[in-house]
Specification:
alpha/beta; CBS-domain; three-stranded mixed β-sheet
Length: 262
């Protein structure tokens, strides 16, 4: 049986980690960091209310939308994506893949009838991928970059503008690190948590990419196989990986692109 023909319940994570929609965003961030997740299912009692992601936290905590609201008073319900798009446990992985690609989702809550039983993510699907073709066939050679001296507000703006959740940090074309959605979510949350509301923007603008970037990240080469890349994505737990030649950045491989090979 091909991977696409398998049932969702064969690949899903069960039981899923959930959070009340009325919880503060700080609790959501802590849960995601503790479990090494990028998403949580938000619930209202037993009802699936939405999905909150690490990127949702970056989007909201780094914006001026809640500029005058203490971070302790920002709740999951204010940042989550709703209504949640779900999939049934006995649906095929092909169906989950199609929804993720069409809706640009990275996960789907899994239901059995009206009951929540799990969650299926991009990583759950691509980690099973067997494909000997080369990384160069799927990588994006034209990809935004930032420098260590750039401000994190600039990195966030570039990521939003280009629809990316990881961005390489370069000096003279050489890779020196990456900025991830996880790093930005942590930075923006702690800045808002530690600063007085009136001083938040000033505090944020003092932080540069070098302060939050991940040095010596996992990397790929153009000639590595998609199967090797899938295994590395499972290990690294990030949405994109740099592709390098020596220490020069040749492009980025996005995890979602691997779904095209399922």
């Amino acid at each position: 049986m091909s991977l696409a023909e398998k049932k969702v319940e064969e690949l899903m994570t069960s039981p899923p980690v959930c959070i009340s929609k009325d919880s503060p965003v700080g609790k959501a961030l802590s849960l995601m960091l503790d479990h090494d997740f990028s998403h949580l299912i938000a619930v209202d009692g037993k009802r699936v209310a939405g999905v909150v992601s690490m990127w949702d936290l970056v989007d909201v905590l780094g914006s001026s939308r809640f500029r005058n609201v203490p971070v302790s008073r920002i709740h999951v319900s204010a940042v989550m994506s709703e209504p949640a798009v779900t999939i049934q446990a006995d649906d095929k992985v092909e169906d989950a893949k199609r929804i993720m690609l069409e809706r640009d989702f990275s996960c789907l809550p899994v239901m059995r009838g009206d009951n929540l039983v799990g969650i299926i993510t991009e990583t759950d699907i691509v980690k099973m991928l067997k494909d000997s073709s080369a990384v160069r066939d799927l990588m994006r050679s034209s990809y935004p970059k930032v420098m260590p001296i750039d401000r994190i507000v600039h990195a966030r703006a570039i990521m939003i503008e280009n629809g990316v959740r990881v961005i390489p940090v370069v000096e003279e074309g050489r890779l020196v690190g990456i900025v991830t959605e996880r790093a930005l979510a942590k930075a923006f949350y702690h800045l808002r948590d530690e600063s007085r509301v009136s001083h938040i923007e000033e505090a944020v603008r003092r932080v540069i990419v070098e302060d939050v970037m991940e040095e010596s990240p996992e990397v790929l080469r153009e000639d590595q196989s998609i199967e090797e890349a899938a295994a590395l994505f499972y290990k690294a737990r990030i949405p994109a990986l740099p592709v390098i030649e020596g220490d020069l950045v040749k492009g980025m491989l996005e995890r979602k692109s691997l779904l095209l090979r399922v």
